[in-house]
Amino acid sequence: MKNDLNFKRFATLLLILFIQITIAQEVKITGQIFDKAGLPIPGANIVLKGTQVVAQTSFDGEFTISAKEGQTLTVSYVGMKTLEIPASKSMKITLQGISNELDAVVVVGYGTQSKKNSTDNIARVTAKDIQQVPVANVQNALVGKLAGVQITQTNGKVDGGINIRVRGAASISAGTQPLYVLDGIPLITDDESSNGAPTNPLLTLSTNEIESIDVLKDASSAAIYGARGANGVVLITTKKGKEGKGTFSINLSQGVSEPTHKKKWLNAKQYVELLLEAGRNANDLQSVEEELENLSQGSDWRNGQTYTDWQDIAFQTGHTTDADFSLSGGDQKTKYFISGAYNNTVGIIDSNDLKRITARTNLSHKVFDNFTVGMNLSFSRSLINRVQDDNSFTTPLQSVAQAPISPARLADGSANPNTEYSNYLLAKDNTFWKTIMRRLTGKVYGEYKFLPSLKFNSDFSYDLLSQTEDNWEGKNAPFMATDGAVFASSVNTENYISSNYFTFDKTVAEKHSFNAVVGMEYNKYHRRYQDVTSIYFPNDNFNTIDGGAEVNEGHGSETDYVFVSQFGRLNYAFNNKYLFKASIRRDGSSRFGKNNRFGYFPALSAGWIVSQENFLKDNSVLTYLKLKGSWGKLGNAEIGNFASRQLYRTNPYNVKSGLTFDQTGNDNLTWEKSTQIDFGFETRFWDRITLEADYYQKDTNGLLFEVPLPISSGAASINKNIGAIRSSGFEFTLNTKNIEKENFTWNTSFNLTTNQSKVKSLPNNNSDIVLGNTINRSGANISSFYLVEYAGVNSENGDALFFKNTVNPDGTLNKEMTSNYAEARRVIVGNPFPTLMSGMTNTITYKSFDFTFTFQGEWGASIYNDAGSYQSTAADVYDNQTADQLNRWQKPGDVTDVPQARFGGKNGTQKSTRYLDKSDFVRLRNLTLGYTLPKQAIKDTGLSSLRLYFTGVNLLTFTNYKGFDPEARRDDKVIGEDFYSAPPARTMALGVNINF
């Protein structure tokens, strides 16, 4: 017994000694984490590898963690490359930014995923890519940075619409814009403009609140959005608070803007000389002289007494002011992000400006260890002073058509009412068009973890877009006959979304990784519109509806639709190298015929990480290689709310109500269907060069068309799903770390995209569909230009010539020339969409300096200048002419492409390729140069960092395009045309980033 007691005492002493030794080895590891610029990183995570021991850095980047020296610490932070490092007593750790796309985490529908293990094709930009680009809309900040994504602002107006095409066209007659999803909320993107030019509803977003933008380009990624994913999906994620001491940031910038390009026009002397010559050649000199006398308003037009530069009046120097702040932080339970922003943009077009305020609050709170609730709430208000659409006489840039011998204003300062066309200054002085957009988005959510591997999310979201328009026209406004008129409209559009889904995420036996999502979603949309017009005002000081003597017109409408959806997705990875993904969504919509209310949208994809195989695993050159492929079906539901219904419209007569048959119903009408495939690879060399290459093909069938009906049916047409198109091409993204040294880094990102979008079949046995100057023809590009081919000028008599292009018996085209326009046949001569797009961004840091610039280019597209038949006609009309008309034919033997000047003679002014021009360009899209003050210089100010910067947009453009700008298009929804369309703005700004 005594021996047993001694043994127990000895064992107890050994145990105590062992515990003491163990405790002695576990020490408090302290350290500080910095970025490569030497600034501390708050909120970085430090994990003792293989354990549950976790720590986070404070506001000053400091941390403390219990660990043994030599144990491995895993250090991570959003946007930084994860680092594994042995623990030591006092550590200073520098994290590198993720310049390699393969190391990023991308947002997918209802979750996130590592790009390295993704089988999808997703393009991404983060806050640092867009937050200092001085543009009023978020989309413009993305230009040139995303492979396969073409972004074009309609024109240089501050409220100009934005066209985005993801991998070419997926429709002809239905919607072509992607679905935008903000923090899980499908955003309202309806254009509610009443003045002919579109507005951009996404003007309501500010870049300072955005953490990242992920564009889902292929079917594998977008199929989780089913019937609304065919045009791609843009996922916008806003910033969230991080655990640690609170941070406060301020950004201020001020800039000036000017047009990227101005056209050259004739001065007063040149204009008179040309008109007189044209009058003599047309034997109509007397009437020309009489009109010149009238246009000059009594001044000496023969000697150039009056010269008005109308272009200079239409343009103005723009100004941009941006101010924003953000406050973020939190602890283990509660995290917060609060931001506000102000933007004041005075446009380059006279009388066009924007004022916007935005505010956001994102909160999350951990009620229990396994239960988290949160709220995202934002509000914005955008006030836009607008001008009329490009096709209106009263829009500023149409003033370039005025005669330079006409005074803009009279001696008393009032606008000259006796110009060739309506003087837009009359509109400036006596009218206004004011649009206010208010947007409220909110989301409340809860996340409950049943198990570490199983959680349930329930989200309720709301999006409200409210817009009012007020158009006042005083008694001296152009075309006014009622002593003033006011038009006022109001539209409220709401989106309610309820999403509930389970997420399962688990690795079994360290080889089998599963991630599954299954859920349902309910989306209800409601829109209510009203407008009213009032006329006969006592004077111009009364410019609201109640100031008029008669309310003479009013309209109102109300509409809604509902989507009910179920969805599921499974990701499986074996041994971290064989990847598989399957997803399906079932969508039902009230928009479609009762026989086709529901549709299924499946997608499959697979990947093989070849570099994980033994024969490549330890290769120091080829450090990563993944092969991938995907297939899926998507839909396009943007066909309007009642396209499938039999409709009647009101038709009152003699103060009696009545109804008239308006539209034939089609119970089988459904969404356009798009089948997409993608094959590609992702590879990395020496951990410095990353290349991603893909081939894609999108086949859309069941296109929505209005098919003609016999007159006896009572309706002109019926909506049917007929026709097919195909978009295909290649994408390449190359990221390189050119130089990586302690005080100097240089990274490059380059992308290249090809695209062909062709018509495969059309209604009525592939009958051509001609719309204005474009045609949709089976086998040709979508909306190809369809024009008579201009052949130049007859050097003997100055006649304009055209190619006949009639069909010879052998099927070839007759290339004989004729001066008779009626003898020439229209042919397909161009494409309104580019076939090659590219972007290149370089990011350079040297000590405390940072330098970033992006070049963007497009090739293969053409623009038709529909205003050319007025402004480049060698004085066929009284419009001022472009300076190239000085090269007109004047005598036999002259070789030129500008015909003889013949007033009213229609000598080459007809629609033809004379006014069609290639729009290829390369543009320095944006450039930023910054300097961060040394910490010693601000150590006593309470600041953590202070950075000064210069930034510019559209600084240089290289192009042979003869118009205002190769990206300017008319804003009345005509495809591929320029019609007095304003060029984009060249903006230069100075700013400061302040962080506390």
From TrEMBL:
It is a multi-pass membrane protein. Residues 115-233 form the TonB-dependent receptor plug domain. SUPFAM superfamilies: Carboxypeptidase regulatory domain-like (SSF49464), Porins (SSF56935). Residues 409-954 form the TonB-dependent receptor-like beta-barrel domain. It is found in: Cell outer membrane. Keywords: Cell outer membrane, Membrane, Receptor, TonB box, Transmembrane, Transmembrane beta strand, Transport. Pfam families: CarbopepD_reg_2, Plug, TonB_dep_Rec_b-barrel. The keyword Membrane applies. Belongs to the TonB-dependent receptor family. This is TonB-dependent receptor. It comes from Flavobacterium cupriresistens. The lineage of its organism: Bacteria, Pseudomonadati, Bacteroidota, Flavobacteriia, Flavobacteriales.
